[in-house]
Amino acid sequence: QVQLVESGGGLVQAGGSLRLSCVASGGTFSRFTIGWFRQAPGKEREFVAVITWFPGLTRYADSVKGRFTISRDNSKNTGFLQMDSLKPEDTALYFCAARPATGAATAPREYTYWGQGTQVTVSS
User: Fold this and answer.
1) What is the per-residue pLDDT for 28?
2) What's phi and psi for 99, nearest 5 deg?
3) Which residue, 20, 91, 93, 118, has most beta carbons within 10 Å?
4) pLDDT(54) > 80
């Protein structure tokens, strides 16, 4: 069973940056699709970004496109989400997820493994 652990969340002022990490263990991760999702209180979990193993496609939610960058380091079994120009509306619990399949899936139900989440709070 693959385990995912997110880190890097915290409190940041609007306009600031954070870099989230997602470390995988317990299985081969390099060929997995990695997705990032977020959930704010009272709201549904929403798609943020995804990166595939091959051909290495990326997709972003319209709300974060141009501000967030997803990447991965397969040698370290780690995925990243670089978040720049943060806004108060980005405040949420951020989750990484993985699926042992191809395709840039954007629906939470399509992911097999999930981390526990890391809190991101953006103050105005």
Assistant:
1) 67
2) -140, 135
3) 20
4) no
